[in-house]
Write a structure and sequence with these properties.
With 626 residues, the chain is α/β, with parallel strands linked by helices. It folds into two domains: 432 residues, Up-down Bundle (Amino acid/polyamine transporter I), CATH 1.20.1740.10; 168 residues, no CATH class. 61% of the residues lie in helices and 10% in strands. It contains 26 helices and eight strands. It has a six-stranded mixed β-sheet, with helices on both faces. It has a two-stranded antiparallel ribbon with strand order 1-2. Helix 22 links the parallel strand 3 and strand 4. The radius of gyration is 27 Å and the shape is elongated. The N terminus is likely disordered.
Amino acid sequence: MHNAGNKPDSKRIATLALAALGVVYGDIGTSPLYAIRECFFGPHGVEPTRANVLGALSLIFWTLVLVVTLKYHVYVLRADNRGEGGILALMALVRRKVRGRARYVLVVLGLFGAALLYADGVLTPAISVLGALEGLTVVKPGLAPLVVPLSVAILIALFAVQRRGTAGVGAIFGPIMLVWFGALAALGIAGIVRDLSVLAAIDPRHGIRFLAQGGGSSFLVLGAIFLVATGGEALYADLGHFGERPIQIDWFGLVGVSLLLNYFGQGALILASPAAAENPFFLLAPAGARLPLLVLATMAAIIASQAIISGSFSLTRQAVQLGYLPRVEILHTSATEIGQIYVPAVNGLLALATIAVVIGFRTSSHVAGAYGVALTTTMLITTLLAAVVARKIWRWPLWLVAVVTATFVVPDLAFFGAALLKIPDGGWFPLVVACGVLAVMTSWQRGRAALRALMLERLIPVGRLLDDIVSRGIPRVPGAAVYLTSDETGAPVAFLHNLKINQIVHEQNFFLTVRGAEVPYVAPENRLELRELRPGFHRLLATYGFMEQPDLPALFDRPEVRALGADPRDTTFILSRSQFVPASRSLLPAWRRGLYMMLARNAVDADRYFQLPPNRVLDIGMVVEI
């Protein structure tokens, strides 16, 4: 985990930088497979004239400089939430600093950006694997019908191995991507040498003339040019795994240079042979090297896909801990790395959606339009949230925030506008996915709020209840009982039902509430708050960060809890299992209520999620009208 307070030695940084190549840069590293081709051969491509090639290359160069280098590496990476990055971590950071309607708007924007990342988790594997295997049409045109079946087969295998974890495979991701970026640079240099005049594209005037003189067709090409920046959000989301310095070393020392060389090499090839625009990446290689390059490209595409799948698992854990998704089964695939997790439900949904996209869209060109809509929207939201951080947390003067934000918003809006024009060509897909995920997130959050309001109406003051128990001489039985409750003030519902049915209480009773913090990790000394309510009755407030997995039995091994006589081997966890039925009058619209009830029925049981010992759990059922 990244910790800004530590200064790793150079060997540690080198190790992190190599590992980051295989996780952080898989997405942006596979963009050369299709980005240049889409500018000239895609559905909205322009003629590969000299002016158009130099103009497109100029826009690609300045996109990498402005969006990836300045915006993400210099600006956004600084907006970490105690070392963690990603749009949900950024939203949690902003949420603590803003009040009123602005807070609501920013939270919805953050959730929509997170929802779009699930769409990205579907589209990245599809476009990367298709883009790599389309090299078959260059190696041997007769193999073109195999592209889709082979893509589906690779994706099925990729999603099937997720359960085994990525620790072993991850050890070779970095070296493979090191070879990949070396190959990109070598191919690019070989292409540039053919026509050094292509370097003139560094002059921004070529890009300006391209947009000014090309009209609507040039504007549409922005959607293809944006594909060179598609890994920006990925490198920000992986900040907590590697830290800012290794990520920046990779970019400035290898990745950025290799990508630029390859793009300019492809441009030089198209200047020499306009017909090469059909697939400039593979045609840039000598004929004898194309088959090995195809194998290497497929491996790079698999690595890019693996990174975004793992990111979707991490995003889900964050959303659950922040209260925007119901409990899901989360399996740890490594005994040493807390970030190595597997979420079966998310893996299955991503697999089905990705395979459907490959079969439905069939080519990377068709997927590219959908891909751009998802990422341009997310990047625009990140810029807006980062502006709030700059103003509210970094205390930048308003004029500086306005200048910096405008510098990044202008290209963001240009790319966003170009992507929106592709909605009929597939851009509708990520919007549909994101709206569906957003509906799930907001319905779960509002359903929980409605349930809390309902419980507050029935709240029994805990002090009066406990005094009544003492005065009535309710029998005590040996051992300790832990009652899980979301309410931090009243008596747990399970405790009331147990008292009503059994007419007994345990010698030691703990009312335990698990709280989610808007920070990634909570220090051990801040994990648990203990309050004595009456002799034999205590309230426990356990706090976990959004990157942590709650382990409730571990709380009862803490010295301060053991001192109260709570032996983990003799402790019973008593849970209330609610069955929801529609109320005649509800705080929720009918569609939200129905969605919330469905999510609640399918949520992972609390005993499994909180890692409770099965032989120490007692469920008490109850019916709740909502």
